[in-house]
């Protein structure tokens, strides 16, 4: 246990903390630790297209239930690329530029001060405490 949040980590939201208490893990987390009694984690890029919970990018990419394995890998790679471009743009721009919904996920996470990949994995952004 440590006394300060490690670099690259952020406080878990309500759903993540509940998941950790219930299962000992957090969907999408590469690392989890406890700091002063609070669950903190670092999320990773999605490993599979099915890992992307964010509905708008999934709908934008289209027909996600019928994609072949290769198409799912391409969709995941597209999402990661677009998200990272949005994350980077939020560090430079004052106004959100036009982009895909995956771009918007990255932009909005950084602009709002959320942990990277939050919108990727958030099962209910209305109730997570970060919305």
Task: Characterise the protein shown here.
41% of the residues lie in helices and 11% in strands. The protein has 131 residues and is an alpha+beta fold. The chain folds into two domains: 1-44, no CATH class; 46-131, no CATH class. It is globular. The mean pLDDT is 91.
Q: Roughly how many Å apart are the termini?
A: 29 Å
Strand percent estimate: 5-15%
Give the rounded overall mean pLDDT.
91
Q: How many domains make up the coordinates?
A: 2
Task: List the helices and strands in order.
Answer: EHEEHHHH
Helix content: 40-55%
Main sheet characteristics:
3 strands, antiparallel
Shape: globular
Total number of helical segments? Answer: 5
Strands ordered across the widest β-sheet: 1-3-2
Annotation, overall tally of beta strands: 3
Which structural class do the helices and strands define? alpha+beta
Q: Return Rg in Å.
A: 15 Å
Poorly predicted runs are none
């Amino acid at each position: 246990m440590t006394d300060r949040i490690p670099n690259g980590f952020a406080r878990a939201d309500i759903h993540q903390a509940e998941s950790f208490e219930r299962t000992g893990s957090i969907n999408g987390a590469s690392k989890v630790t406890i700091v002063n009694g609070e669950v903190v984690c670092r999320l990773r890029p999605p490993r599979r297209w099915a890992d992307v919970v964010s509905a708008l990018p999934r709908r934008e990419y289209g027909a996600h239930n019928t994609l072949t394995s290769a198409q799912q890998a391409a969709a995941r790679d597209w999402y990661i690329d677009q998200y990272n471009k949005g994350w980077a743009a939020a560090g430079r721009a004052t106004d959100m530029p036009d982009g895909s919904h995956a771009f918007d996920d990255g932009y909005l996470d950084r602009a709002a001060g959320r942990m990277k990949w939050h919108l990727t994995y958030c099962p209910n952004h209305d109730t997570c405490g970060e919305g």
